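Q: How would the structure tokens look for this protein?
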Amino acid sequence: MPRDSAHSELGPNSWQCLSCGAMNSAGDRSCRTCGAPAIVPLEPIVTLDADELLARFGPSGERLMAKRYRLIHGIGGGSTGSVFKAIDVNLDRVVAIKVLSATSADGMDVNTRFLRLQTEAQVLGRLRHPGLVTVFEMGNEDGVLFIVMEFVNGRPLKSFLVPQRPLPTRDAVSIMIQVSDALHHAHRHGVVHRDLKPSNIMLLEGDRVKVTDFGLAKVAFGGKVAETGLAIGTPYYMSPEQLRAGDVDHRSDIFSAGIVLYEMVTGQKPFDGDNLSEIVRAILSGQFVRPR
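A: Here is the predicted structure in token form.
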């Protein structure tokens, strides 16, 4: 049977396995081909705000998350989840826990946020590299979805970038070498980040760098790239093929990395405009801002 016809029988909420690439119907709890867990919410999702989470699982909370994690305090968050510093009491280890957020500033629905959170967990779970955050596990505590990750004590590159004030060239080159090495590892394993930008590059002590937030990642199977994120990136740092909603591969990440490098060494973004339409037009036409 032709591939498109087979897909149509699965229904509009079918999902693609991140382990083997096989398509499954919305009701499948695991992949029909390899048995990997489903990447769609199969039970009601419970979302709590930060205060509620700390009240339940925090220092004075009534219990531990997954019977082993004690939340300490919030350390940030994004469109998909709130991030907490926590203690793994079994191993006496500091970890970071991202919990599915109760609300989204950009209006993203809960199922989309679930898919992004699960995508990040499964993508990072298959990668091991010093320039990438390690995921230890993903869990569900009475409907509260969370992922447990390596705790990264650092600041995003974005916080160091000031308009018209370039970073020292040596620092910029060191950062980009490490970013490129991490991306190369991901690409070798069939993963395309799709949302590389300064806020997703963490600078740590000892001049170390980690690439974060794989919630929009795409995973390749047998030369094909599977759509796993539901948005396409951040306009300033997107490649032309992303803007055209075309096929995206590792070259898109390289394009985004080039924009980040340009911004670090010049103190300005290469593609700019007074509104989104002008930014998109500049990227598609290759009309970049000449370094001053």
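The chain has two domains: 50-150, 154-285.

The longest helix spans residues 169-188.

Upvote if useful.
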